[in-house]
Amino acid sequence: MPRQFLYKPPIPQTEPWPPERSEPGLLSDEPARDVYRAACAHLGRALEPLGFKYLKSKQRCIARRSRFTNEVAFQSSHYNVSGRHVQLWMHATVASEELQAWRARCLPPELSSAHVAGGMVHLLGTRFAMVQWELADPQDREQTIQDAIQFIHSEVLPYFERFESVENLLAELATAAVPAFDLVPSVEFSCCFGGTAQAQATLDRFLRDRPDLQAAIAAESVSPSPAALSRPGGYAQQVVFLRHHYNLQ
C-alpha cells in the first residue's frame, strides 16, 4: 500500500465517542463538501508560488508554460459521508495549443484537442496502484494535506518537467514508453515537434514492444473499421489510425 493511500476506516461502534459529536463514531460535524473544498483551496495556495492559478469553481490549478499548459485537478467521491469519509483524488495533465493547432491541420475538427498526456496521478509512474487522500479526520487533516503537497512536488512536478525538454522527450519516446502518454498522442507529439521520422521511430518502438498485436493489426489493416479512422479504440485500431492519417509504416 503506497504511503499516500491515507485511508482510515470508520471508528467501530464499540469505541467511545466524544459527547459533543452529534452521531456515534463521527470524526467531526463538518460537511464533507466544505472539508473537500477547503482542502482544494489549501492545495491551490501551495501551488501559487510555482506559477499555478487556482480556479475555485473547478477545483483545479493551471500553469501556462512557454509551450505547454500544466493542470492539477482535484476530484472527490459521490460516496463521501460527512464526518466519516472525505476522499481526495488528483489528476495531472499536460496540454499544448501548438499540438492542437497541428492536429487541426491533419484531422477532423472534433479530433483536434490540446491534450498531450497525463491522468490520475498514480498513472504518472509505475510505483503506485492507486493514490488517494482521506480528509475526514480533523486531527490529521493538515498532515494529510501536507502529504498531498509533497506528492505533487515529488511526482507531479517532475512529470511536467519532462515535457519542457522536448528534444530529450522525443529521444525517450523512440526507446521506451512514457507513463500516462498514450500511443496516439505520443506519436502525434513526435510528429508535431520532431517530424515524420521521429513519429515513425515512436510507432516502431511501440510495435517492437507489442509483437502480440501483429495479427490484429494486419486484420484491421486489410479492412479498417470506421472507428479505426475516426475514433480508434484498441491498439490495433490506433496503429491503423496513425498510419492512415500521418503516412506512417
Could you characterize what this model shows?
The structure is a single chain. By secondary structure, the protein is α+β, with helices and mostly antiparallel strands. Helix content is 43%, strand content 13%. It has 2 domains: 32-162, no CATH class; 167-246, no CATH class. Strands 1, 2, 3, 4, 5 and 6 form a 6-stranded antiparallel β-sheet that branches. A hairpin with a 4-residue loop joins strand 2 and strand 3 (69-75). The longest helix has 22 residues, at 141-162. It is elongated, with a radius of gyration of 22 Å.
E-strand count = 6
Quickly count the domains: 2
Radius of gyration computed on alpha carbons? 22 Å
**How much is the average pLDDT?**
90
Note the run of SSEs as H and E: HEEEEHEEHHHHHHH
Shape: elongated
From the N-terminal CA to the C-terminal CA, the straight-line distance is 42 Å
Class computed from helices, strands and strand pairing = alpha+beta
- Helical stretch tally: 9
Low-confidence stretches: 1-22
Assign a percent range to the helix content.
40-55%
